Amino acid sequence: MPNIKSAEKRVRQTKVRRMRNRSAKTRFRNVTKELLLAIETKEAPEKVNELLSLSFSVLDRAAKKGVIHKRQASRRKARLTARVKKYLDSLS
């Protein structure tokens, strides 16, 4: 345990930030899994597009808050878009 007052404060701040980051990461992982599951189970294209839009929003928010890097968010969005495009092309 820290002996210095400022070190004690840093421990408290780190704990709060870790919980906030964990929450944001869990959110975008769950949304991504939901989208991939919708593709796997061959959901309606409207539902898939809606989930893709939600995924973009959640990833952008995580990047904005600094939970993930903006390039990582961009890469994840590109990969999800490619999966959705491949799925929609297979339907037609």
Question: What is the secondary structure topology, with strand pairs?
Answer:
Blueprint: H1 5-40, H2 45-65, H3 70-91
Helix pairs in contact: 1-2, 1-3, 2-3
Task: Please characterize this protein's 3D structure.
One of its GO terms (biological process) is translation. This is Small ribosomal subunit protein bS20. It contains three helices and no strands. It is mainly alpha-helical. The chain has one domain: Methane Monooxygenase Hydroxylase, Chain G, domain 1 (Up-down Bundle), CATH 1.20.58. The radius of gyration is 18 Å and the shape is elongated. The model has no long low-confidence stretch (mean pLDDT 96).
Give keywords.
Small ribosomal subunit protein bS20, small ribosomal subunit rRNA binding, 3 helices, single chain, 92 residues, structural constituent of ribosome, Methane Monooxygenase Hydroxylase, Chain G, domain 1, mainly alpha, rRNA-binding, RNA-binding
Can you give me a brief rundown of this structure?
The chain is an all-alpha fold and 92 residues long.
Distance between the termini: 61 Å
Number of helices: 3
- Element-level helix/strand string: HHH
Biggest sheet, in brief? none
Structural class: mainly alpha
Report Rg.
18 Å
CATH architecture: Up-down Bundle
Number of domains: 1
CATH class: Mainly Alpha
Let me know the average pLDDT: 96
Q: What's the CATH topology label?
A: Methane Monooxygenase Hydroxylase, Chain G, domain 1
Poorly predicted parts: none
CATH H-level superfamily title: Ribosomal protein S20
Oligomeric grouping of the chains: single chain
Bulk shape: elongated
- The helicity comes to over 70%
Question: What's the β-strand tally?
Answer: 0
Binned strand content: under 5%
Function: Binds directly to 16S ribosomal RNA.
GO molecular function: small ribosomal subunit rRNA binding; structural constituent of ribosome
Family: Belongs to the bacterial ribosomal protein bS20 family.
Biased composition (Basic and acidic residues): 1-11
